[in-house]
Design a protein that fits this description.
CATH class: Alpha Beta
Radius of gyration: 17 Å
Distance between the termini: 36 Å
Number of helices: 7
CATH superfamily: HUPs
Largest sheet: 5 strands, parallel
Number of domains: 1
Helix content: 25-40%
Order of helices and strands: EHEHEHEHHEHH
């Protein structure tokens, strides 16, 4: 069994691909999913399916209510932006940005990793083909890795805890192709900011648009829509 690693698993195609990469690298994976009050709660069920598909033995679903803070359409009654022009996506930070979400998630993942003697945390963030979130940038990843060494017992000792983002420089198309190389089943994943009442993706939010464009660019049909 390889070294232990925590994988932040939302249920979307990015985190699923990051999990497949971590598994291919021989890690013993511990999946961590956050139930943070998001309106796209259906993604948690997708995360459960991915865990089963990849044969991950440990899956921790952690409740944390970010609705208490609000100021995001993912955790409040604010309207999710729809039908945004493709050339405008990523130009500004949309209201789907959850304040400091990745910082909060990684801080908790850091505590979890240290408690189980894991050496690596995997996160599926990308700085390409994304919605413009500030906590998906290389500078953020670099800064958090520095924090991980200063803020933990492992960092003070001989061990090192690192955060890896294997998709950071990948486009969504490249992410999909890499996942397919590793046998990832994308019909299990869910990517939508504002699901319909029946749990189906809305088809017109930024998340849906980026996913649709990626499969089209790859010359593939999205298996989740068959």
């Amino acid at each position: 069994m390889g070294q232990r690693a925590v994988i932040l698993l939302s249920g979307g195609l990015d985190s699923a691909t990051a999990a497949a990469i971590a598994k291919q690298q021989g890690h013993q994976l511990f999946a961590l999913t956050f139930d943070y009050g998001q309106r796209n709660h259906v993604e948690i069920n997708a995360a459960k399916k991915i865990v089963q598909y990849l044969g991950i033995e440990k899956h921790l679903i952690m409740p944390i209510d970010l609705r208490l803070f609000g100021n995001s359409s993912l955790t409040s009654n604010m309207s999710v932006p729809k039908n945004i022009l493709k050339e405008q996506i990523g130009k500004n930070i949309p209201n789907t940005y959850v304040p400091a979400r990745n910082t909060v998630f990684l801080a908790l993942a850091l505590a979890y990793a240290e408690s189980i003697d894991a050496e690596t945390i995997y996160i599926g963030i990308s700085n390409v083909d994304y919605s413009g979130y500030p906590d998906c940038r290389p500078e953020f990843l670099q800064a958090f890795n520095a924090l991980a060494q200063l803020a933990t017992k492992a960092g003070v000792g001989s061990s090192r805890l690192s955060v890896e983002a294997p998709l950071l420089s990948f486009s969504k198309k490249e992410t999909i192709l890499r996942g397919l190389e590793l046998g990832m089943d994308y019909s299990l994943t869910f990517t939508c900011y504002d699901p319909k009442p029946d749990g189906q993706p809305c088809g017109c939010c930024e998340s849906c648009s980026l996913r649709a464009d990626a499969f089209q660019a790859a010359g593939l049909q999205d298996p989740a829509l068959k």
